[in-house]
Design brief:
Blueprint lengths: L2 H7 L16 H6 L2 H4 L5 E5 L8 H13 L4 E7 L8 E4 L5 E5 L6 H4 L3 E10 H10 L13 H8 L4 E5 L11 H21 L3 E2 L6 E2 L4 E2 L4 E2 L4 E3 L3 E2 L4 E2 L4 E3 L2 E2 L4 E2 L4 E3 L2 E2 L4 E2 L4 E2 L4 E2 L4 E9 L2 E2 L4 E9 L1 E3 L4 E2 L4 E3 L9 E3 L4 E2 L4 E3 L2 E3 L4 E2 L4 E2 L8 E2 L11 H13 L1
Parallel strand pairs: 2-6, 7-10, 8-11, 9-12, 10-13, 11-14, 12-15, 13-16, 14-17, 15-18, 16-19, 17-20, 18-21, 19-22, 20-22, 21-23, 22-24, 23-25, 24-26, 25-28, 26-29, 27-30, 28-31, 29-32, 30-33, 32-34
Antiparallel strand pairs: 1-5, 2-5, 3-4
Protein backbone atom coordinates (compact mmCIF):
# COMPACT_ATOMS: atom_id res chain seq x y z
CA UNK A 1 0.00 0.00 0.00
CA UNK A 2 1.39 3.39 -1.07
CA UNK A 3 4.73 1.78 -1.94
CA UNK A 4 5.94 4.74 -4.08
CA UNK A 5 5.37 7.13 -1.17
CA UNK A 6 7.25 4.84 1.21
CA UNK A 7 10.11 4.51 -1.27
CA UNK A 8 10.33 8.30 -1.63
CA UNK A 9 10.43 8.73 2.16
CA UNK A 10 13.32 6.24 2.43
CA UNK A 11 15.32 7.76 -0.42
CA UNK A 12 18.99 8.10 0.49
CA UNK A 13 18.80 5.94 3.62
CA UNK A 14 20.92 2.77 3.98
CA UNK A 15 18.06 0.32 3.63
CA UNK A 16 16.50 -2.13 1.19
CA UNK A 17 12.85 -1.87 0.25
CA UNK A 18 10.93 -5.07 -0.53
CA UNK A 19 7.36 -4.95 -1.85
CA UNK A 20 4.69 -7.41 -0.73
CA UNK A 21 2.87 -7.66 -4.05
CA UNK A 22 -0.13 -9.53 -2.64
CA UNK A 23 -1.26 -8.74 0.90
CA UNK A 24 -1.71 -12.12 2.58
CA UNK A 25 -0.97 -11.14 6.17
CA UNK A 26 1.85 -9.99 8.41
CA UNK A 27 3.81 -13.26 8.37
CA UNK A 28 3.61 -13.31 4.58
CA UNK A 29 5.02 -9.75 4.54
CA UNK A 30 8.06 -10.75 6.62
CA UNK A 31 8.52 -13.85 4.49
CA UNK A 32 9.21 -11.61 1.47
CA UNK A 33 12.53 -10.65 3.08
CA UNK A 34 13.48 -14.21 4.05
CA UNK A 35 16.49 -14.48 1.76
CA UNK A 36 18.22 -11.60 3.59
CA UNK A 37 17.94 -13.06 7.10
CA UNK A 38 17.59 -16.83 6.62
CA UNK A 39 21.25 -17.54 7.39
CA UNK A 40 21.72 -15.11 10.29
CA UNK A 41 22.56 -16.28 13.78
CA UNK A 42 22.13 -12.70 15.00
CA UNK A 43 18.81 -11.16 16.11
CA UNK A 44 16.34 -9.83 13.56
CA UNK A 45 13.98 -7.03 14.58
CA UNK A 46 10.44 -6.94 13.15
CA UNK A 47 8.50 -3.74 13.66
CA UNK A 48 4.94 -2.95 12.62
CA UNK A 49 4.69 -0.01 10.25
CA UNK A 50 1.94 1.78 12.17
CA UNK A 51 4.02 2.66 15.25
CA UNK A 52 5.25 6.22 14.63
CA UNK A 53 6.04 6.80 18.33
CA UNK A 54 8.50 3.96 18.84
CA UNK A 55 11.95 5.02 20.11
CA UNK A 56 15.39 3.50 19.55
CA UNK A 57 15.68 3.08 23.32
CA UNK A 58 12.68 0.73 23.47
CA UNK A 59 14.00 -1.36 20.57
CA UNK A 60 17.41 -1.63 22.27
CA UNK A 61 15.79 -2.62 25.56
CA UNK A 62 13.91 -5.49 23.89
CA UNK A 63 17.07 -6.66 22.10
CA UNK A 64 19.04 -6.61 25.38
CA UNK A 65 16.28 -8.65 27.08
CA UNK A 66 16.31 -11.12 24.20
CA UNK A 67 20.07 -11.67 24.50
CA UNK A 68 20.09 -11.96 28.29
CA UNK A 69 17.23 -14.48 28.57
CA UNK A 70 18.11 -16.06 26.08
CA UNK A 71 14.71 -16.42 24.40
CA UNK A 72 13.52 -18.03 21.19
CA UNK A 73 11.22 -15.10 20.56
CA UNK A 74 10.91 -11.77 22.39
CA UNK A 75 8.13 -9.30 21.90
CA UNK A 76 6.99 -5.97 23.31
CA UNK A 77 3.66 -5.75 25.10
CA UNK A 78 1.56 -3.04 26.70
CA UNK A 79 -1.43 -2.93 29.01
CA UNK A 80 -4.53 -1.00 28.00
CA UNK A 81 -7.73 -0.20 29.83
CA UNK A 82 -9.49 -0.60 26.48
CA UNK A 83 -7.63 -3.23 24.40
CA UNK A 84 -10.12 -3.20 21.52
CA UNK A 85 -8.44 -3.88 18.19
CA UNK A 86 -5.27 -5.43 19.60
CA UNK A 87 -4.10 -9.04 19.74
CA UNK A 88 -4.30 -10.34 23.33
CA UNK A 89 -1.30 -11.97 25.01
CA UNK A 90 -2.23 -15.22 26.71
CA UNK A 91 -0.09 -16.48 29.60
CA UNK A 92 0.03 -19.78 31.46
CA UNK A 93 -0.70 -20.10 35.16
CA UNK A 94 3.04 -19.71 35.72
CA UNK A 95 3.15 -16.46 33.78
CA UNK A 96 4.79 -17.76 30.59
CA UNK A 97 3.57 -16.43 27.24
CA UNK A 98 1.74 -19.19 25.41
CA UNK A 99 -0.06 -17.42 22.57
CA UNK A 100 -1.15 -14.18 20.95
CA UNK A 101 -4.78 -14.27 19.93
CA UNK A 102 -6.14 -11.80 17.37
CA UNK A 103 -9.34 -10.10 18.49
CA UNK A 104 -11.40 -11.69 15.72
CA UNK A 105 -10.26 -15.14 16.91
CA UNK A 106 -10.43 -14.50 20.69
CA UNK A 107 -12.91 -16.03 23.11
CA UNK A 108 -14.90 -13.72 25.43
CA UNK A 109 -12.45 -14.53 28.25
CA UNK A 110 -9.43 -13.74 26.06
CA UNK A 111 -10.97 -10.46 24.94
CA UNK A 112 -11.07 -9.44 28.60
CA UNK A 113 -7.27 -9.61 28.86
CA UNK A 114 -5.57 -6.20 29.17
CA UNK A 115 -2.06 -7.17 28.02
CA UNK A 116 -1.79 -6.79 24.27
CA UNK A 117 0.72 -7.26 21.50
CA UNK A 118 2.78 -4.17 20.68
CA UNK A 119 3.93 -5.19 17.21
CA UNK A 120 7.68 -5.35 17.96
CA UNK A 121 9.51 -8.70 17.82
CA UNK A 122 13.08 -10.03 18.05
CA UNK A 123 14.18 -13.52 16.95
CA UNK A 124 17.30 -15.19 15.56
CA UNK A 125 17.30 -15.02 11.75
CA UNK A 126 17.70 -18.75 11.09
CA UNK A 127 14.95 -19.75 13.50
CA UNK A 128 12.63 -17.04 12.14
CA UNK A 129 13.06 -18.19 8.54
CA UNK A 130 12.09 -21.75 9.43
CA UNK A 131 9.19 -20.75 11.67
CA UNK A 132 7.62 -18.55 9.03
CA UNK A 133 7.36 -21.57 6.71
CA UNK A 134 5.24 -23.38 9.30
CA UNK A 135 2.54 -20.70 9.58
CA UNK A 136 -0.78 -21.57 7.95
CA UNK A 137 -3.78 -19.32 7.17
CA UNK A 138 -6.08 -21.22 9.55
CA UNK A 139 -8.15 -18.24 10.68
CA UNK A 140 -11.23 -16.22 9.79
CA UNK A 141 -9.33 -13.87 7.47
CA UNK A 142 -7.40 -16.67 5.75
CA UNK A 143 -4.17 -14.75 6.34
CA UNK A 144 -0.71 -15.70 7.57
CA UNK A 145 -0.49 -14.19 11.05
CA UNK A 146 2.93 -13.23 12.40
CA UNK A 147 1.58 -13.74 15.91
CA UNK A 148 1.50 -17.50 15.22
CA UNK A 149 5.26 -17.41 15.82
CA UNK A 150 4.46 -17.61 19.55
CA UNK A 151 2.57 -20.88 19.12
CA UNK A 152 5.35 -22.32 16.97
CA UNK A 153 8.06 -21.33 19.46
CA UNK A 154 6.17 -22.74 22.45
CA UNK A 155 5.26 -25.90 20.55
CA UNK A 156 8.92 -26.48 19.81
CA UNK A 157 9.90 -26.15 23.45
CA UNK A 158 11.22 -22.63 23.08
CA UNK A 159 10.91 -19.64 25.40
CA UNK A 160 8.79 -16.64 24.53
CA UNK A 161 9.08 -13.52 26.62
CA UNK A 162 6.97 -10.36 26.57
CA UNK A 163 8.65 -7.18 27.76
CA UNK A 164 6.32 -4.33 28.70
CA UNK A 165 7.06 -1.07 26.89
CA UNK A 166 5.71 2.47 27.40
CA UNK A 167 2.12 2.34 26.12
CA UNK A 168 2.36 5.61 24.20
CA UNK A 169 5.20 4.22 22.06
CA UNK A 170 3.24 1.20 20.92
CA UNK A 171 -0.06 2.83 20.12
CA UNK A 172 -0.99 1.90 16.57
CA UNK A 173 -2.44 4.39 14.10
CA UNK A 174 -5.53 2.89 12.49
CA UNK A 175 -7.89 5.87 12.41
CA UNK A 176 -7.90 9.66 12.20
CA UNK A 177 -8.41 9.76 15.97
CA UNK A 178 -5.33 7.57 16.48
CA UNK A 179 -3.36 9.82 14.13
CA UNK A 180 -4.35 12.96 16.04
CA UNK A 181 -3.38 11.36 19.33
CA UNK A 182 -0.02 10.22 17.94
CA UNK A 183 0.74 13.65 16.53
CA UNK A 184 -0.06 15.24 19.89
CA UNK A 185 2.37 12.91 21.66
CA UNK A 186 5.12 13.56 19.10
CA UNK A 187 4.70 17.32 19.50
CA UNK A 188 4.93 17.02 23.27
CA UNK A 189 8.26 15.23 22.87
CA UNK A 190 9.56 17.95 20.55
CA UNK A 191 8.45 20.70 22.94
CA UNK A 192 10.10 18.92 25.88
CA UNK A 193 13.37 18.69 23.92
CA UNK A 194 13.45 22.44 23.26
CA UNK A 195 12.49 23.33 26.82
CA UNK A 196 15.40 21.22 28.06
CA UNK A 197 17.71 23.06 25.64
CA UNK A 198 16.89 26.47 27.12
CA UNK A 199 13.92 27.72 25.08
CA UNK A 200 11.21 29.56 27.04
CA UNK A 201 7.59 28.83 26.13
CA UNK A 202 4.78 30.83 27.72
CA UNK A 203 2.25 28.10 26.98
CA UNK A 204 3.98 24.91 25.81
CA UNK A 205 0.67 23.09 25.30
CA UNK A 206 -0.11 25.29 22.28
CA UNK A 207 3.34 25.28 20.62
CA UNK A 208 3.43 23.52 17.24
CA UNK A 209 7.06 22.75 16.35
CA UNK A 210 8.17 20.40 13.57
CA UNK A 211 10.96 17.92 14.24
CA UNK A 212 13.62 19.58 12.06
CA UNK A 213 13.16 23.05 13.57
CA UNK A 214 16.22 24.53 15.32
CA UNK A 215 15.70 27.06 18.13
CA UNK A 216 18.53 28.95 19.83
CA UNK A 217 18.98 29.24 23.56
CA UNK A 218 16.93 31.85 25.44
CA UNK A 219 14.46 32.29 22.59
CA UNK A 220 10.92 32.98 23.83
CA UNK A 221 7.76 31.55 22.27
CA UNK A 222 4.38 32.97 23.24
CA UNK A 223 1.12 30.94 22.91
CA UNK A 224 0.05 29.43 19.57
CA UNK A 225 3.39 29.80 17.78
CA UNK A 226 3.84 27.46 14.79
CA UNK A 227 7.33 26.63 13.51
CA UNK A 228 7.27 24.44 10.42
CA UNK A 229 9.69 22.65 8.10
CA UNK A 230 13.38 23.49 8.45
CA UNK A 231 12.95 26.75 10.26
CA UNK A 232 15.85 28.16 12.31
CA UNK A 233 15.21 30.65 15.13
CA UNK A 234 18.25 32.42 16.53
CA UNK A 235 19.21 32.79 20.17
CA UNK A 236 17.29 35.38 22.16
CA UNK A 237 14.58 35.87 19.54
CA UNK A 238 11.01 36.52 20.68
CA UNK A 239 7.99 35.20 18.79
CA UNK A 240 4.67 36.54 20.04
CA UNK A 241 1.24 34.95 19.98
CA UNK A 242 -0.12 33.42 16.79
CA UNK A 243 3.09 33.67 14.77
CA UNK A 244 3.59 31.11 11.98
CA UNK A 245 7.04 30.53 10.45
CA UNK A 246 7.77 28.04 7.65
CA UNK A 247 11.16 27.07 6.17
CA UNK A 248 12.73 30.37 7.23
CA UNK A 249 15.85 31.58 9.04
CA UNK A 250 15.56 34.08 11.86
CA UNK A 251 18.75 35.55 13.26
CA UNK A 252 19.58 36.36 16.87
CA UNK A 253 17.37 38.70 18.89
CA UNK A 254 14.70 38.94 16.21
CA UNK A 255 11.24 40.06 17.35
CA UNK A 256 8.12 38.84 15.55
CA UNK A 257 4.95 40.42 16.86
CA UNK A 258 1.48 38.88 17.05
CA UNK A 259 -0.25 37.08 14.14
CA UNK A 260 2.55 37.47 11.60
CA UNK A 261 3.25 34.89 8.86
CA UNK A 262 6.81 34.26 7.63
CA UNK A 263 7.32 31.86 4.71
CA UNK A 264 10.68 30.93 3.14
CA UNK A 265 12.27 34.17 4.24
CA UNK A 266 15.37 35.40 6.07
CA UNK A 267 15.54 37.84 8.96
CA UNK A 268 18.92 39.17 10.07
CA UNK A 269 19.90 39.84 13.68
CA UNK A 270 17.75 42.37 15.51
CA UNK A 271 15.04 42.64 12.86
CA UNK A 272 11.44 43.32 13.92
CA UNK A 273 8.34 42.08 12.10
CA UNK A 274 4.64 42.62 12.79
CA UNK A 275 2.07 42.59 14.16
CA UNK A 276 -0.08 41.21 11.32
CA UNK A 277 2.77 41.22 8.79
CA UNK A 278 3.30 38.75 5.98
CA UNK A 279 6.69 37.81 4.57
CA UNK A 280 6.31 35.74 1.42
CA UNK A 281 9.00 33.58 -0.21
CA UNK A 282 12.20 35.43 -0.98
CA UNK A 283 11.83 38.20 1.61
CA UNK A 284 15.16 39.18 3.18
CA UNK A 285 15.03 41.58 6.10
CA UNK A 286 18.32 43.20 7.08
CA UNK A 287 19.84 43.79 10.54
CA UNK A 288 17.71 46.05 12.70
CA UNK A 289 15.14 46.59 9.95
CA UNK A 290 11.47 46.94 10.85
CA UNK A 291 8.45 45.53 8.99
CA UNK A 292 5.30 46.76 10.70
CA UNK A 293 1.60 46.04 10.89
CA UNK A 294 -0.21 44.96 7.71
CA UNK A 295 2.97 45.09 5.63
CA UNK A 296 3.56 42.44 2.96
CA UNK A 297 7.01 41.71 1.54
CA UNK A 298 7.61 39.35 -1.39
CA UNK A 299 10.95 38.50 -3.05
CA UNK A 300 12.49 41.70 -1.78
CA UNK A 301 15.55 42.74 0.20
CA UNK A 302 15.14 45.31 2.95
CA UNK A 303 18.44 46.89 4.00
CA UNK A 304 19.83 47.34 7.50
CA UNK A 305 17.95 49.87 9.63
CA UNK A 306 15.21 50.45 7.06
CA UNK A 307 11.58 50.50 8.11
CA UNK A 308 8.17 50.01 6.56
CA UNK A 309 5.86 50.40 9.52
CA UNK A 310 2.32 50.52 8.10
CA UNK A 311 0.02 49.19 5.38
CA UNK A 312 2.59 48.61 2.66
CA UNK A 313 3.33 46.15 -0.16
CA UNK A 314 6.95 45.65 -1.25
CA UNK A 315 7.30 43.13 -4.08
CA UNK A 316 10.34 42.44 -6.27
CA UNK A 317 12.18 45.33 -4.65
CA UNK A 318 15.63 46.16 -3.35
CA UNK A 319 15.47 48.64 -0.50
CA UNK A 320 18.75 50.12 0.70
CA UNK A 321 19.95 50.94 4.21
CA UNK A 322 18.14 53.35 6.55
CA UNK A 323 15.22 53.90 4.19
CA UNK A 324 11.89 55.17 5.55
CA UNK A 325 8.91 53.71 3.68
CA UNK A 326 5.72 55.62 4.49
CA UNK A 327 2.29 54.17 5.16
CA UNK A 328 0.34 52.95 2.15
CA UNK A 329 3.38 52.62 -0.14
CA UNK A 330 3.07 50.12 -3.00
CA UNK A 331 5.56 48.75 -5.50
CA UNK A 332 3.53 48.16 -8.65
CA UNK A 333 5.64 45.24 -9.81
CA UNK A 334 3.28 43.40 -12.19
CA UNK A 335 2.19 44.76 -15.57
CA UNK A 336 -0.15 41.87 -16.37
CA UNK A 337 2.56 39.87 -18.12
CA UNK A 338 5.85 40.20 -16.25
CA UNK A 339 7.24 41.19 -12.84
CA UNK A 340 9.52 44.24 -12.63
CA UNK A 341 11.93 45.51 -10.00
CA UNK A 342 11.98 48.62 -7.87
CA UNK A 343 15.37 49.74 -6.51
CA UNK A 344 15.54 52.33 -3.72
CA UNK A 345 18.94 53.61 -2.59
CA UNK A 346 20.31 54.16 0.92
CA UNK A 347 18.83 56.91 3.08
CA UNK A 348 15.76 57.57 0.91
CA UNK A 349 12.67 59.04 2.58
CA UNK A 350 9.40 57.80 1.08
CA UNK A 351 6.26 59.65 2.16
CA UNK A 352 2.86 58.08 2.66
CA UNK A 353 0.63 56.73 -0.13
CA UNK A 354 3.36 56.44 -2.77
CA UNK A 355 3.19 54.13 -5.78
CA UNK A 356 6.39 53.00 -7.50
CA UNK A 357 5.50 51.81 -11.02
CA UNK A 358 8.29 49.35 -11.79
CA UNK A 359 10.79 49.18 -13.29
CA UNK A 360 12.07 52.27 -11.51
CA UNK A 361 15.14 53.34 -9.53
CA UNK A 362 15.46 55.93 -6.77
CA UNK A 363 18.91 57.36 -6.00
CA UNK A 364 20.34 57.54 -2.50
CA UNK A 365 19.01 60.16 -0.05
CA UNK A 366 16.21 61.23 -2.38
CA UNK A 367 12.84 62.31 -0.97
CA UNK A 368 9.55 61.05 -2.41
CA UNK A 369 6.64 63.31 -1.54
CA UNK A 370 3.45 61.86 -0.06
CA UNK A 371 0.85 60.79 -2.62
CA UNK A 372 3.34 60.59 -5.49
CA UNK A 373 3.14 58.10 -8.34
CA UNK A 374 6.69 57.44 -9.48
CA UNK A 375 6.98 56.24 -13.07
CA UNK A 376 10.52 57.47 -13.85
CA UNK A 377 13.88 57.14 -12.13
CA UNK A 378 14.60 59.66 -9.36
CA UNK A 379 18.17 61.04 -9.10
CA UNK A 380 20.11 60.91 -5.85
CA UNK A 381 19.26 63.74 -3.48
CA UNK A 382 16.25 64.89 -5.51
CA UNK A 383 12.67 65.59 -4.39
CA UNK A 384 10.08 63.77 -6.47
CA UNK A 385 6.53 65.16 -6.53
CA UNK A 386 3.68 63.81 -8.64
CA UNK A 387 0.33 65.40 -7.73
CA UNK A 388 -2.65 67.03 -9.40
CA UNK A 389 -2.68 70.70 -8.30
CA UNK A 390 -5.13 71.34 -5.47
CA UNK A 391 -8.01 73.68 -6.29
CA UNK A 392 -10.23 75.19 -3.54
CA UNK A 393 -13.68 76.48 -4.63
CA UNK A 394 -15.11 78.87 -2.03
CA UNK A 395 -18.79 78.29 -1.11
CA UNK A 396 -19.07 75.10 -3.21
CA UNK A 397 -19.97 72.84 -0.29
CA UNK A 398 -22.66 75.19 1.02
CA UNK A 399 -24.37 75.36 -2.38
CA UNK A 400 -24.12 71.58 -2.81
CA UNK A 401 -25.84 70.77 0.47
CA UNK A 402 -28.45 73.47 -0.01
CA UNK A 403 -29.52 71.92 -3.33
CA UNK A 404 -29.88 68.51 -1.64
CA UNK A 405 -32.21 69.97 1.02
CA UNK A 406 -34.46 71.51 -1.65
CA UNK A 407 -34.76 68.15 -3.47
CA UNK A 408 -35.84 66.37 -0.27
CA UNK A 409 -38.65 68.91 0.26
Amino acid sequence: HQAPEVKAALQGLPCRMIVQRTQLGTAHAVLQARRWFAGLRSPVVILNGDLPLITAETIRRLMDAHRSQPATLSLASLRLADPTGYGRIVRSAGGRVTAIVEETEATPAERGLSEVNGGLYVAEGRWLAGALRKIRPDNAKREYYLTDLVKIAVGGGGVVQAVEAPPEELLGVNSRADLARAESLVRRRIVARHLAAGVTMRHPETAFIDDEVVIGQDAVLYPMVQLEGRTVVGAGSILHAGVRVRDSRLGACVTVLDSSVIDQSELADGATVGPFARLRPGARIGPGAKIGNFVEVKRSTIGAGSKANHLTYLGDAVIGRNVNVGAGTITCNYDGREKHRTVIGDGVFVGSDVQFVAPVRVGREAVIAAGATITRDVPAGALAISRTPQANKPGWAKKKFASKKRKKK
